[in-house]
Design brief:
Blueprint lengths: L9 H6 L9 H14 L5 H14 L4 H9 L8 H12 L5 H12 L8 H10 L5 H13 L7 H13 L3 H9 L6 H13 L3 H9 L7 H14 L2 H13 L6 H13 L3 H9 L6 H13 L3 H13 L6 H14 L2 H15 L5 H13 L3 H10 L6 H13 L3 H14 L4 H13 L3 H13 L8 E6 L2 E6 L8 H17 L15 H9 L2 H11 L7 E5 L5 H9 L4 E5 L2 E5 L24 H18 L11 E9 L4 E10 L2 E9 L3
Parallel strand pairs: 3-4
Antiparallel strand pairs: 1-2, 1-3, 4-5, 6-7, 7-8
Length: 661
């Protein structure tokens, strides 16, 4: 093997830039050997630079950095070396080592400086199971007089508290920062998103006192996607254009994701089509966007285009394709893709892929097949797969299998709130109130809480959130007055409240009162009193929508867009503006009852929408068949009745009041 002759001086090493590749470890060793031969290894500056370069170059080189550091005589060690080892360890697979070096640093009598704490806090952010470590570091920061004086320390503290889901403390640190640059604002916004406080993230962006950068826009787009805040999302897009920010692939992908999750799939596709330099992630996000909007044909067509363009699908891409198959009820296509993943794409199926297929089978009512799939694969010990099957059991009212699935979930995750609540519901449906009380008592004793259902709606760029029975809103009186009007209207149309999901042993009247004040109904009422007639209301709920709310939404004839668990549902609106996602018509033939002139007018209206969406599928918790069965037309109003089947064992009729322009 030919050796490389390296002539090096201590000055060259101390002035050199770090060598950032793990392949340079051999080069580091040659430098080390040269310094040992020349005696320059005993120069503190030279040795410190070598330790720093090795420690921060690549995690795989950290072991050699440890060796260098441990062999360094105590008199030659300094704070710079310790900071280098703390930094390297913070980014390694074992961030606890950073804390060990910090303790050694204190024992050796070195004072931590403003470079020490950011690296340490980064390490503590990666070990949130020990929150006391970061909290004690915060105390040290205060004790040594660094708080509020160094923006990097303030930013690191905000990120640390976000990592342990303590945004109240993060906000206090932020508020005490005298100089709030874009970095600390980004840390606050990202922290809110990490803690699923998306509305707070959006509010922070609205009051941000410095211009945002790409990281800001990426974070805000993510928050708005989860909120369904389309109006503010459009403002963010305009902000990017107005400030001539570079529309990178990452930023465009975030905006595409935001538009898709807000139900504005045309805007997502428009941006996608006009972006040069697409990468696999952008293709995958666009495919997933079609999938969650119920546009399976478009998702599969785009998947074919992606492969034709020479892109190799990754795991995320295939998850999106399987999701499209699931929402469209394409059982055989989904199973075929799962079977061929390894052979065709060299990708072994993961939990996410199997979860999509379990969901696919569950939506199609093939619960036994879904159970067999879980039992057959080696990943059956994953609670997510059982959770997907539990959802299907709930939809199809298979309480016996659901009880078994919930118990399997609790074996794997004893504190799973969803499984316990389902068991409680099963027992309540059977009138076993003693067992219901046992489940609830156990949850209370073990401090297991199900997150409360909440719904949000965006109006004039502000996101309003509601909880069930919420009376905290400033317009509460008007909201409940409108809610009473809605209830009266739907009752006049024959609606009877579905109360079987109320699992309290109370009389029927009280149960009806419970379901009438669910968060999504409050959001609808608020939207109706604050928007013009015919406006589309976009409502986002964090949990599954209940059966009664689903029925009420279909009977409310204002344009409603309700998103639940990344599945869209729409109910009535102007046919020229309605973004049909979950309720859609298969336009195979026009109604025979219509005159030729009216048929031409209707055909023109429908064709405009059809040309944009091509194929529209309906998903109401499972694959559903929808047919347009009658139309009466008078040039002013079009009344369409649609028969909807497949909502569990429920069969309902939808009356759509469609006004055209």
């Amino acid at each position: 093997m030919k050796s490389t002759n390296i002539a090096v001086s201590s000055r060259q090493i101390s002035n050199s830039k770090p060598l950032l590749s793990s392949s340079n470890l051999h080069h580091f060793k040659q430098l080390h050997a040269k310094l040992l031969r020349t005696g320059e290894i005993e120069e503190t500056l030279t040795l410190g630079k070598l330790v720093a370069d090795v420690a921060t170059s690549h995690p795989s080189n950290l072991r050699y950095a440890h060796s260098l550091f441990s062999r360094t005589p105590a008199p030659l060690r300094n704070a710079f070396m310790y900071n280098s080892m703390i930094r390297g360890s913070a980014e390694s697979p074992d961030p606890d080592e950073s804390v060990s070096f910090y303790k050694s640093m204190l024992r050796d009598g070195f004072r931590p400086n403003n470079y020490t704490y950011p690296f340490l806090l980064k390490a503590c952010s990666r070990i949130p199971e020990h929150p006391h470590l970061g909290c004690s570091l915060h105390a040290s920061v205060v004790h040594r007089g660094f708080e509020g004086k160094d923006p990097f320390i303030q930013t690191s503290l905000v990120s640390f508290y976000a990592s342990i889901v303590d945004m109240d403390s993060a906000r206090k640190v932020f508020d005490r920062s005298p100089k709030r640059d874009v970095t600390v604002w980004n840390a606050l916004i990202k922290g809110y998103i990490m803690c699923s406080r998306h509305a707070d993230a959006a509010r922070a962006f609205r009051v941000m006192s410095v211009p945002g950068d790409e990281i800001t826009m990426l974070s805000v787009a993510s928050a708005l996607a989860n909120l369904g805040a389309l109006e503010m999302g459009r403002w963010v897009h305009a902000y990017i254009d107005r400030n001539q920010m570079n529309m990178t692939v990452s930023l465009a992908t975030a905006l595409i994701n935001m538009y898709a999750k807000c139900g504005e799939i045309e805007s997502a596709r428009y941006l996608f089509d006009r972006m040069p330099g697409k990468d696999v992630r952008m293709w995958s996000i666009m495919i997933s966007g079609f999938a969650i909007n119920g546009l399976a044909k478009e998702a599969l067509d785009l998947f074919s285009q992606m492969k034709s363009a020479g892109f190799k699908p990754d795991s995320v891409t295939l998850t999106g394709v399987l999701s499209a198959c699931s929402h469209a009820g394409m059982v055989q296509e989904g199973l075929r893709l799962l079977d061929r993943m390894a052979a065709d794409y060299l990708i072994e199926p993961t939990i996410e892929h199997y979860g999509c297929v379990v969901d696919l089978l569950g939506r199609a009512g093939q619960l036994e097949e879904a159970l067999a799939l879980i039992n057959r694969i080696s990943l059956s010990a994953d609670v997510a797969l059982w959770g997907a099957l539990l959802v299907a059991c709930r939809v199809h009212k298979n309480l016996e299998m659901g009880e078994m699935v919930a118990k399997e979930m609790l074996k794997l995750d004893p504190v799973n709130a969803g499984a316990r609540v389902f068991l409680s519901n099963v027992y309540a449906a059977s009138g076993k109130w003693g067992l219901v009380e046992d489940v609830r008592k156990g949850m209370k004793e073990q401090m297991i809480y199900k997150p409360p259902g909440s719904s949000s709606i965006e109006l004039d760029g502000t996101v309003h959130e509601f909880l069930s029975g919420d009376r905290s809103h400033s317009h509460s009186d008007q909201i409940y007055k409108m809610l009473d009007e809605i209830c009266n209207i739907v009752r006049s149309r024959g609606h009877k409240s579905t109360t079987k999901e109320v699992t309290f042993d109370i009389d029927e009247e009280d149960k009806e009162a419970c379901v009438s004040q669910h968060s999504e109904k409050l959001a609808v009422a608020f939207g109706l009193i604050n928007t013009r007639k015919g406006a589309v209301l976009r409502i986002v709920k964090n949990l599954r929508i209940c059966e009664d709310c689903h029925s009420v939404m279909k009977l409310v004839s204002e344009g409603l867009l309700v998103r639940k668990s990344l599945v869209m549902g729409e109910f009535g609106s102007s046919i020229c503006s309605l973004i049909i996602r979950a309720i859609a018509f298969k336009l195979h033939q026009a109604p025979e009852q219509m005159s030729k002139e009216n048929d031409e007018k209707l055909h023109d209206l429908l064709a405009r929408r059809y040309n944009m969406l091509h194929q529209m599928e309906m998903v109401i918790n499972m694959t559903t068949s929808v047919r347009m069965i009658c139309c009466l037309f008078d040039f002013g109003e079009l009344w369409g009745g649609a028969s909807v089947t497949g909502f569990g064992n429920l069969e309902v009729s939808v009356l759509l009041n469609i006004t055209y322009s």
